[in-house]
Design goal:
By secondary structure, the chain is mainly β. It has helices spanning 3-13, 170-174; strands at residues 64-72, 75-78, 84-85, 92-101, 111-116, 121-122, 127-131, 134-141, 145-152, 158-160, 165-167, 176-183, 189-198, 201-204, 214-220, 226-232, 250-254, 257-258, 262-264, 268-271, 279-288, 293-302, 307-311, 317-325, 336-345, 348-362, 365-368, 371-372. It is elongated, with a radius of gyration of 33 Å. The two termini are 54 Å apart.
């Protein structure tokens, strides 16, 4: 038995001495054992008229957290190694599962809360329950929030888990460097295109068949659509693009898709029902090149018999057959490959050739050659 526990037990029984206890804790009042008292006139000096033992235990050690994970919809956010970033389109419930313990406070007596790092305060409307040794705290994840977990013991000591669940707004999620992969006929990456999105400004670098440099301004409207204005064709590193910035060559307004990994300014929505790539997909945009905004539509139809027809926003079209191949390049595995075996252009027969795209379906949207974040 430790010195602290033995002393506390003795005090609780009202004993003046305990056999074998020679070093009372620092935060208690020492007692004379009175082993040597042989006259009634000999009194031990306690240094105080109050002879009650002070058994207060100072707890200044914060709780420890073993693991924190979260469930968001059907997905799991692993916060064990770093922040988890998810781009939401709407608010949704999130449940944090927390494994924590404390030397003095029982696990079920701990206070487990979800904090908004923007304010440093606990978020409103959260529900915490303890079950099977784990705490579960449910609250709401919303765009623009960064949520973290704090555990506090009964003495007021607190520990905050170092990794957070980050939910940037869609505009915030756009601000980063993006890469578009270009595949050759051998289905390997032959080139890369690069674009930088900063606060309200974007630019595509030269190289990789991008047609750059060119760039301009951008904004996300209140209805969630993205406006991209093309204003210049100068090197991205230039701080001043001169009078070119004063004019807009093209202003394009459309729905877009962005996540922690993908960005597509041209996501395709399915027409009708379906679970895989087969079917018809469309994308609409408002394009203004100086003569007023016009609605343009791109459509891609992939048939069961492996024939396809693809009409782009500019009215050009291709048709032929297609193949789906699994992407075997683990270093650039951002989707499987769609091989477009072109036999017609704009309704006229051409010498067959093949174009390789990578694609993925995210939240019901088809992304073809999206921008990706390459770590």
């Amino acid at each position: 038995m430790s010195a602290r526990l033995l002393f506390s037990a003795c005090a609780a029984l009202g004993l003046l001495a305990c056999s074998g206890e020679t070093n009372p804790p620092d935060d208690t009042v020492a007692r004379d054992t009175m082993d040597a008292v042989d006259t009634v006139d000999t009194v031990a000096d306690t240094g105080s008229e109050d002879t009650a033992a002070d058994t207060t235990v100072t707890d200044d050690t914060p709780p420890e957290l073993d693991d924190v994970r979260a469930t968001l919809g059907a997905g799991v956010l692993d916060l064990s190694q770093g922040d988890a970033v998810r781009v939401l389109t709407t608010a949704m419930p999130i449940t944090f599962k927390v494994s924590a313990y404390d030397a003095e406070t029982d696990a079920e007596a701990l206070t487990v809360e979800v904090l908004d790092t923007g304010t440093g305060a606990a978020v409103n409307d959260q529900d915490a329950t303890f079950h099977n040794g784990l705490w579960e705290v449910t609250t709401t994840a919303d765009l623009g929030l960064t949520l973290e977990v704090r555990v506090t013991d009964e003495a007021g000591n607190a520990t905050v888990w170092p990794h957070a669940a980050v939910f940037p707004t869609r505009a915030e999620a756009l601000v980063r460097d993006w890469t578009r992969l270009v595949y050759g006929g051998d289905t390997t990456v032959s080139a890369q295109q690069h674009a930088a999105f900063t606060d309200g400004v974007w630019c595509v670098e030269a190289g990789g068949g991008s047609g750059g440099p060119y760039g301009g301004s951008w904004e996300v409207l209140g209805d969630g659509r993205l406006v991209i204005a093309r204003r210049h064709e100068q090197a991205c590193e230039l701080a001043d693009h001169g009078t070119e910035w004063d004019s807009v060559e093209e202003r394009r307004t459309a729905d877009f898709y962005v996540s922690a990994t993908y960005f597509s300014e041209r996501p395709y929505a399915r027409v009708g029902e379906g679970d895989d790539l087969v079917g018809t997909w469309v994308h609409e945009a408002e394009v203004d090149r100086g003569g007023g905004a016009q609605t343009v539509t791109a459509s891609l139809t992939l048939e069961e018999d492996r024939s396809f027809a693809w009409t782009r926003e500019d009215g050009s079209s291709t048709a032929g057959t297609y193949e789906i191949r699994e992407n075997s390049d683990y270093t650039a595995d951002f989707g499987n490959l769609l091989l477009e075996n072109v036999a017609e252009e704009n309704g006229a027969a051409v010498t067959p050739y093949t174009v390789v795209h990578y694609w993925t379906i995210r939240e019901g949207l088809l992304l073809v050659d999206p921008w990706v974040e390459v770590n």
